[in-house]
Amino acid sequence: MIRSLRHLAKVSKLSVLTGLFAGLSLVSSTAFAQANYPNKPIKLIVGFAPGGGSDLIARLVAIKLAPVLGQPVIVENKPGAGSNLAAELALKSPPDGYTLYLSAASYTVNPSFYKLPFDSGVDMTPIALLARGPFIVATNKDFPAKTLQELVTLAKASPDKYSFATSGTGSITQMATEYFNEIAGIKLLHVPYKGTSPALTDTVAGHTNIVFGTVASTLPLVKSGQLKALAVTTPARLAALPDVPTVKEAGYPKYEVTNWHGIIAPKGVPVEIQMKLNKAINQVLQDPEMEKTLTSDGLTAAALTPAEFGVVIKSEIARWGAVAKSRGLSIK
Asked: 99 in a domain, yes or no?
């Protein structure tokens, strides 16, 4: 009996030591993997088709990031369902830093319109904010209002008479416009399109009256005289349109909307890998070619820590959720 107990004690001690060594081995292996990150190609998933603004930013970042990290960064386009398919694929990948997701401002709008299989504010690791810029509030060249205040006066006098075009129901451009409707106390008629191009085309043609457009797509039409710019949605004026006021300057100090792109990853990416990626991306944002490309699209580089970027994402999700609720917005 005593011999059996002694044998049992030895076996138990051996099991504890074996478990301890296994745990130490696992910790050592994990630490080694983090210290040697990256040691294979990194995938950057984009929720939009090739050739668009988000795709171009992703590809430029990938090209510049590869030599800094010492590994290829491969862009993979997965368009569909308002970019939610791509987000789900990325956020349900292993949290090892080898799968990243190019997040646009629309990422924070989608929870207000879709029943998502993930929590946009929780099931992700913020990595870095890339760039941000304004939307241009523009009208058809023959629209009677010459200023934003004149537009509001017309809209208040005739609710739902004047229309605004967007890239689709549940888009960031719809939310930017609806948010202005709420603050200005007006009712504009929403006309959704399947993409930015047809929305702009019909505004130029006069079929719709107003558009909150991205700088890259709207500025050329303003410069050519096909559209009339009334304001920009960020606190600072756009360098390419120095005479066009901000919405705040036009009399609406509470209004501010930023169009942005950033990089996130699945929830649980180790802090060391987060910081490696953040440092590398912020280094890339200082590249002269990168700065030139962003500036030409009306964007500016935005160097934030992962924690700071996380605050931006969560605050935007809350903001757009409140706007969708107060305006009674949904995808029917």
From this structure: yes
